Amino acid sequence: MEIRDPHSLLALFIESFRVTNRAFGRIITFCIISIVGVVLLQLLLFISVPLLCVEILNAVFSAFLAVLLIKIIAAQAEGDLASIWDLMSASLLPAVYMIIFSLLLGIVSLVGNLLTVVILHAFSWIGALILVPIALFIFARIILAVPAIALRDMGPMHAIAYSWELTRGHVFRMLVAFFLSVVFPWLCIAGILYGLYTLIPLYFANSFDILHLSAAWWITFALLAVLVGFVFLSMQSFFILIFLNLDFTEGSETSSQVLQAPQIHDNGTALSTGAAKAAKTTDTPNVQVLKASIKTHTSDDSLDKHLDAVYQPVPQNEIIQTEEDRMPTIVFDDSMAAQIAKERELFEQEKAQAKARHNPEDDGEPTIKMSK
User: 270 has which bridge partners?
Assistant: First the structure.
């Protein structure tokens, strides 16, 4: 799928599973990095580092992991071949922005909760009918602020404004996407639990012991856990694809690559930063692009017109021949004339000898002539 072309929610939803599947190797590396980070944080607690410092590091590390995961999925969706280490280095600054955004969101949520309590206490259920649509509308307009911070290195306020711009006219679409991303994973979990609840008593009642599970059962549960994690990650990919699709098709900001670093071309040459950016068209009135193509040849008429405009031929009556334009004259000296005469004499002698050989009458010998 070309993410720069407009697509429906269903197409992006299906593509999210493919993107997650293609990025599975990097996601495994991401999980290893997460485990190593958690272990290091626990070691800090073990060596008596103050709890406040550990909590701050935990918040920074969590924001870093959130940005890194978004960059991994977006890089796969955009076809970026940057290494995981380059993506990690590019995630440091957006992680700081993500922490600031989380603090602002927490303050706004606290104020919103207090305002909700006051309105519900004053207007009861009528206030709820007013607040719920307003809350859903605001939520749908700022839901793309997180990928804007992670992928476009925007500050919190700039990301909120950009998300508000991208979702203009797409409020219902964003609400449907959010509802689908929340409901679908839990439907999968419910289906798995119902399948286990139904199949285990019917087929595995004699061999299933929850206290003494066999290796086969542990492998089965591990595979089911991986499947559930894959579904949740695919829903994350779903929103990233929605952001990229809207950003490339309707965003006014200059779309950048996931990685803000020099890119390496296929032939080994290094491209400067931003050289591999996707081109975005500016708003031009009364212009519609029907087909993107590159024309590598011109018609004969256009070529003739171009040559006539560039090259102005000189009329024949204005051409003045100079002495240099005439044919050169060859001057023979005496030695050259003698050499030519000698060669001519030799040529005549050879010609006479050849004629004598073909005419035996000249030798005085009798010849016999045959008549018809």
Answer: 264
